[in-house]
């Protein structure tokens, strides 16, 4: 898996920064533990629950695990019964891409999956007197809800009980918010207006903000044990019926999207990278899951962003930048695009240093920092338009659902 390459670099960086996450390199070697009868280790990165309910966690784990075999077959029947939905073709395409990138195993039918996971022919499985098999994992159904910009498959760790089990032991803390660039600007302002060495006060320098996105992020981080996903593939012939369409099973080698512990596990990686970038390279940066926000002095000409790029490359975790010579996001001096390139521009999530940046649904505006000392943070125009449109729909229906309220009142 990808992070294996970074094992020694993680040890070096962890030691150089005195990181509290002393088991991160071990996880890069043996995979992150998502489900286990023992409490998941404390990484030192997240806030611990005051009193983790270990007894409740173990009871829930035992209950869940004993039903894994029955759940496997129930999921098979359920997915088969529901068949293809409107997103089935898209789901097949993105799943095939993950197989190609080595994130998922090849697709199995049920018999092949059981052979792969249990290391024996399904006919020879050891069964107890009730016919139950001690199956090591609980299956997550893959589905693909429509999202605003991107079709992103979700592996359902909620309806199969895994997420509930895990929240008994973990608290996910993502402390960064859209205020981060403003807090950095404030610290710079304080330092220049009240120099700690008592030297003469200086005016606020021009500062800029940039953003980057990690390509596939936690799907590139290895998982310990067998995490199994299943979905309905209309292109596959069902062995039992001979009709087109069957359940296809994959073992996920990377952290699945949809598990609460995937987020907390993955966040340990950018947390270390942020420590290295800040302490060893003086980069003013922070991450929110797979998003980076980088503040820099205009005179530094985006050297912070370049440093973060080098770090990501060294960790074999590429940023979602296209690196095309004509891309203005990736190059300070882009070449003119060809007619073909102009017609089909490469997908690029990098945003170079500028006075403005979009970050976590907000526009960060540094335009007036030097003149007024103010950073403007405002919601993106399209987000405001969407929320107003949804509220209009609510007013018409005289109803506001709890999920919509939660989504928009943040
Ligand atoms: Zn680019």
What does this structure look like?
The chain folds into three domains: 199 residues, no CATH class; 146 residues; 31 residues. The strands form three sheets. Strands 2-1-4-5 form a four-stranded mixed beta sheet, with helices on both faces. Strands 6-7-3-8 form a four-stranded antiparallel beta sheet, with helices on both faces. The chain has a three-stranded antiparallel beta sheet with strand order 9-10-11. The longest helix has 17 residues. It is α+β, with helices and mostly antiparallel strands. The model has no long low-confidence stretch (mean pLDDT 86). Helix 1 runs antiparallel to helix 2 and helix 1 crosses helix 10. The chain is built from 15 helices and eleven strands. It is globular, with a radius of gyration of 24 Å. It is 37% helix and 17% strand. It binds zinc ion. Zinc ion binds next to loops.
SSE topology:
Blueprint: H1 7-16, H2 24-30, H3 54-66, H4 68-82, H5 88-100, H6 110-118, E1 140-143, E2 154-156, H7 162-167, H8 180-193, E3 207-213, E4 222-237, E5 244-254, H9 260-266, H10 268-281, E6 284-288, E7 291-297, H11 303-314, H12 339-343, E8 351-354, E9 356-359, E10 362-365, H13 369-372, E11 376-379, H14 381-397, H15 402-408
Parallel strand pairs: 1-4
Antiparallel strand pairs: 1-2, 3-7, 3-8, 4-5, 6-7, 9-10, 10-11
Helix pairs in contact: 1-2, 1-10
The structure holds zinc ion.
Question: Helix content range of the residues, please?
Answer: 25-40%
| Bound small-molecule species | zinc ion
**Shape annotation:** globular
Structural class: alpha+beta
Can you count the beta strands? 11
Overall tally of structural domains: 3
Main-sheet strand order equals 2-1-4-5
The total count of helices amounts to 15
Please summarize the sheet with the most strands.
4 strands, mixed
Low-confidence stretches: none
Distance between the termini: 37 Å
| Percent strand | 15-25%
Quaternary organisation: single chain
Mean pLDDT: 86
In sequence order, what are the helices and strands, one letter per element? HHHHHHEEHHEEEHHEEHHEEEHEHH
């Amino acid at each position: 898996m990808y992070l294996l390459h970074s094992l020694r670099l993680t040890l070096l960086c962890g030691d150089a920064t005195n990181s509290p996450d002393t088991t991160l390199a071990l996880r890069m070697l043996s995979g992150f533990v998502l489900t286990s009868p023992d409490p998941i280790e404390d990484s030192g990165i997240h806030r611990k629950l005051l009193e983790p309910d270990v007894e409740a966690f173990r009871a829930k784990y035992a209950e869940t695990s004993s039903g894994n075999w029955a759940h496997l077959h129930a999921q098979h029947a359920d997915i088969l019964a529901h068949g293809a939905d409107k997103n089935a073709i898209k789901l097949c395409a993105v799943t095939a891409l993950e197989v190609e990138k080595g994130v998922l195993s090849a697709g199995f039918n049920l018999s092949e999956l059981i052979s792969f996971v249990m290391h024996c022919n399904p006919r020879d499985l050891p069964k107890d007197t009730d016919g139950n098999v001690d199956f090591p994992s609980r299956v997550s159904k893959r589905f693909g809800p429509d999202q605003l910009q991107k079709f992103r498959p979700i592996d359902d760790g909620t309806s199969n009980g895994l997420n509930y089990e895990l929240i008994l032991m973990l608290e996910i803390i993502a402390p960064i918010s859209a205020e981060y660039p403003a807090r950095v600007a404030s610290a710079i302002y304080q330092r220049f207006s009240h120099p700690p060495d008592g030297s003469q006060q200086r005016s606020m320098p021009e500062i800029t903000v940039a953003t980057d996105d990690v390509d596939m992020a936690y799907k590139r981080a290895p998982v310990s044990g067998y995490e199994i996903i299943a979905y309905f593939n209309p292109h596959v012939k069902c062995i039992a019926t001979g009709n087109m369409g069957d359940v296809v099973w994959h073992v996920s080698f990377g952290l699945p999207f949809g598990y609460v512990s995937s987020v907390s596990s993955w966040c340990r990686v950018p947390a270390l990278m942020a420590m290295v970038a800040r302490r060893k390279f003086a980069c003013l940066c922070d991450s929110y899951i797979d998003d980076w926000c980088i503040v820099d002095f205009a005179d530094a000409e985006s050297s912070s962003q370049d440093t973060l790029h080098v770090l990501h490359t060294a960790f074999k975790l590429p940023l979602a930048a296209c690196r095309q010579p004509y891309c203005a996001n990736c190059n300070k001096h882009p070449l003119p695009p060809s007619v073909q390139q102009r017609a089909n521009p490469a997908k690029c999530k990098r945003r170079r240093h500028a006075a403005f940046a979009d970050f976590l649904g907000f526009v960060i505006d540094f335009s007036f920092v030097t003149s007024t000392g103010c950073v403007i943070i405002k919601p993106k125009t399209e987000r405001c338009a969407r929320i107003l449109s949804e509220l209009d729909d609510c007013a018409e229906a005289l109803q506001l659902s709890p999920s919509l309220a939660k989504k928009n009142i943040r």
